[in-house]
Amino acid sequence: MKILLIYSEAECRRALGFTLVELLVVIVIIGILIGLTLPAVQSAREAARRMECANNMRQTALATLSYADVNKSQLPVGAKGINFCTWNHFLLPFLEQNARYQSLNFSEGLTYFDSGVLEGKSFNNKAPFTSETGRLHCYTCPSDVENEWVNQEARWPKLNYVVCAGATALYPTNLKGWGGEGIQTAKKNWWIDEYSSFDGTVKHKGACFGVIRGGKSDYNAQPPVIRNYDLSTGRNVKLAEITDGLSNTLLLSESLQGFDDDCRGLTFRGAGAFFTAYCGPNSKNADITETRVGKCVDVPYANLPCSMGASTVEPFRFAARSRHRSGVNAALADGSVRFFSDSVGIETWRNLSSTHDGQSVSLE
Question: Can you tell me the distance from the alpha carbon of 342 to that of 355, in angstroms, rounded to the nearest whole number?
């Protein structure tokens, strides 16, 4: 027996597909699911970038210790004068970057010019970090936006790691022989021994990195000699002189690549190679740069606050900064890398930056 089924016109149309209302409901549900999933995907990607950033920093920290192993425990000097010769250059052979290193020529004291001929050998201290030689990714954090510094000579990729210059701040860099007009008199030390500003008074009690300038032992030379923290020894800091312990002393941290002609991120140049710990990680307080040496682009919303015109009241000062959520990666002098929260106690941060302040620090 056959049964005859009779469908209405509406039921026939329904059998052929979805109604507009049903399609809209499905689209809304898909949108909600994407909205719920996207933050998790972005968080996972940032976690992977942060891990890669920490691995790059660990590689750099271990290269620093390898340098010390073959140089009688001495750490590489933070910078030789204002020009293109900082700790970045000294570490190149320990990062499998011998081709870049071959363009350099180091000697006793200061090679003040960017390029030229020294002891019969041509050198170009800008060459290892030009766009033509390619960005050095082991000095770059993938969480940051890649920027370049451009002028009439060339284009230079900016980088992301800076070395620790202690707990205070750095002198204004408008000194004789430092690209300035000699308004400030020469200083024996490159850091400020006792620094008072918006957040109290702090004494400089050693740092892993500093500057070599001028002749071998005469701080009255022009340019003047300005070495790490111990002028009397006439040499770089040794690991054995870090009496607070290698696992309690900051070696390097992250920095951000400034926009346009901002000198932050030029860590292969003296003006941008350091951070100081007077301000904590990702501080809301402005970085201070000196007018005749560097420039800054003040972008507080991008974690790049800054002010031009360092003086004896507000001297040259860069804080550790990153694109990570609520903190920065930093390497300790034992080669380990830790993530430090923005909420780390300022006294703890300053104690970590010092090599011989005698303060116990708990990192638990």
Answer: 22
